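COURSE: Structural Biology Practicum
ASSIGNMENT: Worksheet 4, Part C
STUDENT ID: 0417
INSTRUCTIONS: Below are two proteins. For each, the amino acid sequence is given first, followed by its structure token string. Answer the questions at the end about the second protein only.

PROTEIN I
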Amino acid sequence: MTIQRLTMAQALVKHMAALKVELADGSVLPYLAGVFAIFGHGNVAGLGEALAAERSHLPTWRAHNEQAMAHAAIAFAKASFRQRAMAVTTSIGPGATNLLTAAALAHVNRLPVLLLPGDVFASRAPDPVLQQLEGCSQGDTSANDAFRPVTRYFDRITRAEQILTALPRAIAVMTDPALCGPVCLALPQDVQTHAFDCPDTFLHPPTVQFRRPPADAFELQRAAALLRSARRPIIIAGGGVLYSQAWAELQAFAQTHGIPVTETQAGKSSLRWDHPLHLGAIGVTGSPAANTLARQADLVLAIGSRLQDFSTGSHSLFPQAQVLGLNVQAADAAKAGGVTLIADARTALQQLAPLLVGWQADAGWTALAHQQSTAWMQRVTELTTSSPPSGDLPYDADVIGAVRDSCADSAANDVVVCAAGTLPAELHKLWRAGAPGNYHVEYGYSCMGYEIAGGLGVKMARAQQEVIVMVGDGSYLMMNSELATSVMLGRKLIVVVLDNRGYGCIQRLQLASGSPRFNNLLDDCVDNGGALPAIDFAMHARSLGADAVHVDDLAQLREALLAARAARKTQVIVINTTHTRTTEDGGCWWDVAIPEVSQRSEVQAAFAAYTAARKDQKR
């Protein structure tokens, strides 16, 4: 066996640089597109030296915030349909724990990222080292143990040769269709620098090839029988449709059998927006077309969906229907009391085809779907092209329409990125996605601050497309530093900031729950001796290196968007909007617990309405 004398960090980086993946189209690319790094005393000497030596084979990028750079890495993986990923490294202490939110986000969304935080000395010789977390009851605990519940695989490398087994196991989890998610290898800073005899085989890993697990014969026959018995089926397309790249099979399956298709946040763009069987978004943020048919369906075929509460209306939207869960992850397939079909989405749809020859949904049901789809498409045009009432600020739908119409075929050419607040609801209903992956909204964790960093990751995966980040003022203030990174790396974004002067989405929920205005809009948060902040978002963005402008109305917004599309570096456009108007069409109940006891009559009324609504909730 041929060996090389390498440090643990050198072996780790060489393996990462050499790892290749065979994509669905047969092409072979590096599996890890690069490493985001913020160096500190826990990773600069060991891992930093190794990354510098391999930078021509494995790019390293510096970011400005650890959480944000992990968001960018995660967004890259999502935009790549999980076929490629990135690594992220930080120092120990706050650098490492800044990754925790991003790890949880990746875990919830089933997205791969390789987290490489530095750790305290394995030798313990200098204990306590700077930034070390000390415990009185557990001597082997460090801050990195907090990664255990928010990752799919965790290991701490305490001897250099352990990397030989730990790294392949981590990659196996990242590339497993069912287990896929974040992994963490905690790297003690002394162990990073320790040398060992590394076998050459480790430095030439086999090419990753993704598995497509077929359905079990019994489950396949059971699913086919269940579908054949259905008269009014609908499909819920989740993120698994995109990760399986099953969009062509989905369209063929729906057309052949006359089944209307609805989409979750993660699954939106699985079917082109103008397809006659496309009913749009489902659930709390759903379209009237999708939710109307969901309430009448006798079977719900959930493909690649976690069936999150927003998709099921907290289990109140379709309690009358049998659920058939087609999912590569067994736990997800069984949700909502579903009959399980555990398999890769694309493979299973292909397997079902010969078993369903001649079967179709009721003709009247398919005709109703066509009618509802057409009516909703027309309504979306109305909602996104009307003008706000005289003297009123525009609301999200007005801005969405302006963004869409600034390109002749935005549905095919633009990727929209968002994560939290009112915008995900409006985008879920109103954005038109014409190609798979052109809708990128992180709504599994709905993490404020993901938007700009996520847009950077999407642009790194889809360099030829215009990436448009739509973000509220609250999320912008929470995390915006990767604007500077996008400029530094030459990855142009168009960022549209909708300023409603606070957390408008949560204030509406607060008032609907019977509570008074409190601690959400900036107007309500001025303390004694304080002053209402006058935040110039455009000036702030310019200070980070972007081109930026504040526009006064929709006409100026349209002009600014045309200029932004023609520009070569990151553009920020700010517009004042109102939080008091939302798109009332569609939607359904969402379970938000209301206090059982309160002195406020508004809370008492909200609790009575809440109690009545829960009667429709399937338990």
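PROTEIN II
(use this one for the questions)
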Amino acid sequence: MSKTEKQAFISTAICLIFMIMGSIVEQTGGQYYQLLFAIGIIGGGWKQTTEGIVEIIEDKKLNVDLLMALAAIGASIIGDWREGNMLIFIFCLSGALEEYTTNKSKKEITSLMKMQPKVAMKLLSDGSTKEVGVEELEIDDLVIVAKGASVPIDGEITKGATSIDEAAVSGESVPVDKTIGDNVFSGTINTESAFTMKVSKKADETLFAKIIKLVEEAQAQTSKTAGFIERIENVYVRVVLISVPLVIVLTHFFFGWAWEESFYRGMVMLVVASPCALVASATPATLAAMSSGAKRGVLFKGGAHLEELYRLKAISFDKTGTLTKGEPEVTDEYFFGNKADLLPILLAMESQSTHPLALAILAHYSGEGIAKEIEVKEIAGFGLQASYEGNEYKLGKKAATTGHEELINGLINDGKTIIFLSKNEELQAIIALLDIAKEDAKPAIDYFKAQGIHTSMFTGDNEGTARVIAKEVGVDQYFGNLLPEDKTRLIEEKRAQYNVNMMVGDGINDAPALATAAIGVAMGEGSDVAMDVADMVLMKNDLGKLVFSHKVAKKLHGIVRINMIVSVGVICFLLLSNFFQIISLPLGVIAHEGSTILVILNGLRMLKNIK
């Protein structure tokens, strides 16, 4: 429990205790019960009143705290000490609950800061280790991470294999297997074996540091609704302060009410007209929504983006790495000679290349054939060439001979990349590869289309590849052969047409489009530049998180709307009841502050799991 939260609950407890003691003394005919109520009013109300006075002095702004303090003083003047104490108690209770809600909402995100590693075991040149501060580590330093320890900094595994719990950065609860060459991130947990890693980023540039920075920025921002409520609060309080004395005077002279009754009704008005519930309608719920998102690996850079997300009308996806896996996979194979003889030669040639297509072919056939030891040379503009047992083999994107045109044209029309293997200028095999769609791409597209949101796909790949992936995932529209400036231009057109649009991408070339869209969403495993300019970050490349985010935005909108309707409705009802002399000060206090507690608890629903 935070210091401010403790103070809020202590003030509430003091107020309640002295209210009970004063009531007992008053009921038993004892003296000085007013003193007990006064202590309860001062003990409970000093915190909010002090904060209100400081805000008036420093920011020149009036707030609801001032209205509550004046109402309690007014009730005491007309002899309703118990009602004044009750007012402060319920006001304190709602304030304490709001403090609790706010802190609970921030807990999931601020706890990240406590998880940030402080020290690391640096491996020295003589083989010994030394404990150093994380900020002392330099790029290319070697660090040993023990079993059960936090990864101190971003880097690459150079020795060992293990499983890493990456929930802190991706929201994914299942540990991820890691081995030599894999990246590891600061703040994640080594759940299995010790390993050695090479530092790739400084402490203030790690993914974890970026997350904390994004969270701090997000907490400092408010939604448009919350900002609007904050702006009108000062004006609203002024109107109430002017209206109360007018009501007291007018009801006395024009309605013939006694001064005591007019003053009493003025005090009731001071209580029931206070916008406490309205002020609490948006902010606690928004913080809770952001906390819920952070827990699931979705970072919102401010409440305003959540509000915009509810009004989303069009969404555009980058293809590579966003809708597709970002790595080519073998989809078709055609061997026109003996596969058992040709495959080892094919693998032998590809094993001497580091091209992504070669790596994809080797991965596809791993365990199927043993690569022969063949001397391979590279032919500029063609591919690879090798001699084996008196035969000349060529491997590349260009066919050494003609033939099978219908088959080849069909594969090209399907947007696939083709690798040809020839023997003595005669075609022996065709391998087709494609960057295939992610499993979660089509369900995500289907969800947004069902919501009436226009979907489109952008890619720099050729028209054939774009058409195949677009058809597979089901987007409404696709664009191929795009440069970064083309993506930005299209996003500008989408924004002009749909007003609230979104761009989802992961690469440096997506950054201009992300910054141009009404809402830019970066995939967390993408480039740092994309993360920096985006309004939202999906810490794991999971489009299901994007669907979850939209559901969060819809639920938040519903809760805030209900809160505002309830708060304004209660104020109007209580004002009318007071004018017709139906409601008493205690009932006004209970109804008004009760509505404040209700909207706060309603906002807390955002912390529940959203399906």
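ANSWER KEY EXCERPT:
Q1: The mean pLDDT is 84.
Q2: The radius of gyration is 33 Å.
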